[in-house]
Automatic annotation (TrEMBL):
Organism this protein belongs to: Microbacterium rhizosphaerae
Protein name stated in the entry: Helix-turn-helix domain-containing protein
PANTHER family linked: HTH-TYPE TRANSCRIPTIONAL REGULATOR TRMBL2 (PTHR34293)
Family matches, as InterPro entries: Sig_transdc_resp-reg_C-effctor (IPR016032), TrmB-like (IPR051797), Tscrpt_reg_LuxR_C (IPR000792), Tscrpt_reg_TrmB_N (IPR002831), WH-like_DNA-bd_sf (IPR036388), WH_DNA-bd_sf (IPR036390)
UniProt xrefs under CDD domains: LuxR_C_like
Length: 317
C-alpha cells in the first residue's frame, strides 16, 4: 500500500498494527503477525529510522506509532516533489530523443542489445512503457522469460494494456501452459496459435519492436534488435497483423474453466496430437478420442481436417 514511499508489505503491516495499539513490543507484534521475533525487531528499527515509530520512555522495549499526519505527510510531499522533477526531466529528455531520432540515418533505426540479461531488461521496459497494446510472438524453443517471471505483463494488463499473443503449437504442449493461458485470457489477453511464427517479438504500441535473437544451433538468446520508428518497424507491424489474422484463438475470455468442446477443437485445429491435447486438458487420451468421434459424428465428417473446417463453418470455434 505504501510502496511509493519505500515501505513494503511487512513494514506496512507492522505500522498498521501499531496504529491500532497503545503500544507493543516485538514479541507481541510477532504473535499478532506470525513473523519471527528477530524479523519484527529488525523491521521496528527500520520504522524508527523512518520516523514512523518511537520507543516509550518508560519501557524502551515497547514502541508506539507516530501519527500518520506527522510521519507520512513529509514523506508524501517529498515523493511528490521528486515525481514532479522526474516528470519534467522525462519531458525534456523525450524531446531531446525526438530531435535526435529525427536525424537517424538508415543504419541507426536498429539498436543492438547484447546479452540475455539486457534483453530481459528491455522486454520489461517495453511492457512497462506500453500504454495501449503489446503484440507478442512466442516460439516453441526454450523460453527466454517464463510467464511467472514476467511481472510487467501482469502490471500492464492491470492498467488496461491490451495484449495480443501468438504462440507456436509446441508452446501449448509445455506443462501448465493452458492454466497460465486461461488466467491471462481472463485478465484480458488474447492468445492465438500457429504451427510456426517467424521470430520472437515484442511490439509496444506500434512504436518500438524488440526481436530477441539466438546464435545458429543454440536455444539461448544472446541478444536482440530494438527497432525504432521506420519503414522496418512498419514491416514488422504488418507481419504481425498478417499472422494475427491467420492464427486460431485458443479460447475466449468468457469461457468457463471446464473443458469445453471449443477448447478441445482449438487445440486440435492448431495441430496438437490426441496425447498432447489430453495432457493439456487433464483428461485421458481415450476421452479426447471419444469426444472427437462424437463431434465428427455430429458434424457428419470423417477426418480431422473436415472436422476443423466444419467447426469453423458452424461457429464452434
Amino acid at each position: 500500500m505504501l510502496e511509493a514511499i519505500g515501505l513494503d508489505d511487512e513494514h506496512t503491516a507492522i505500522y498498521r498494527l501499531l496504529l491500532e495499539l497503545p503500544s507493543a513490543d516485538a514479541a507481541q507484534i510477532a504473535a499478532e503477525t506470525g513473523m519471527p521475533v528477530d524479523e519484527v525487531a529488525r523491521l521496528l528499527v527500520d520504522l524508527e529510522g523512518l520516523g514512523l515509530a518511537a520507543r516509550q520512555a518508560s519501557s524502551p522495549e515497547r514502541v508506539v506509532a507516530s501519527p500518520p499526519s506527522l510521519a507520512l505527510r513529509p514523506m508524501l510531499v517529498e515523493s511528490e516533489r521528486r515525481l514532479t522533477a522526474a516528470h519534467a526531466a522525462f519531458v525534456q529528455l523525450s524531446e531531446i530523443y525526438r530531435q535526435g531520432a529525427a536525424l537517424r540515418a538508415a543504419p541507426e533505426v536498429v539498436d543492438v542489445v547484447l546479452g540475455p540479461d539486457a534483453v530481459r531488461q528491455r522486454i520489461a521496459q517495453l511492457q512497462a512503457s506500453a500504454s495501449e497494446r503489446v503484440d507478442v510472438f512466442v516460439k516453441s524453443e526454450v523460453a527466454l522469460l517464463e510467464a511467472a517471471d514476467n511481472v510487467e505483463e501482469e502490471r500492464a494488463l492491470g492498467r488496461g494494456v491490451r495484449y495480443r499473443t501468438i504462440v507456436e503449437t509446441g508452446v501449448i504442449e509445455r506443462p501448465g501452459f493452458l492454466d497460465a493461458a486461461r488466467a491471462a485470457t481472463a485478465a484480458g489477453e488474447e492468445i492465438r496459435a500457429l504451427p510456426e511464427v517467424p521470430t520472437r517479438l515484442f511490439l509496444a504500441d506500434g512504436r518500438l519492436a524488440l526481436l530477441p535473437m539466438r546464435p545458429e544451433g543454440s536455444n539461448q538468446v544472446g541478444g536482440a534488435l530494438l527497432v525504432h520508428p521506420s519503414g522496418l518497424l512498419d514491416l514488422v507491424t504488418a507481419v504481425f497483423e498478417a499472422f494475427w489474422q491467420s492464427a486460431r484463438p485458443l479460447f475466449t475470455a468468457d469461457e468457463e474453466d471446464a473443458v469445453s468442446e471449443r477448447e478441445l477443437l482449438s487445440l486440435l485445429v492448431v495441430g496438437l496430437t490426441d496425447a498432447a491435447a489430453a495432457a493439456q486438458l487433464g483428461i485421458s487420451v481415450r476421452t479426447v478420442q471419444r469426444r472427437i468421434s462424437d463431434l465428427s459424428e455430429r458434424a457428419g465428417v470423417s477426418s480431422r481436417f473436415q472436422l476443423g473446417v466444419e467447426a469453423v463453418r458452424r461457429g464452434w470455434l
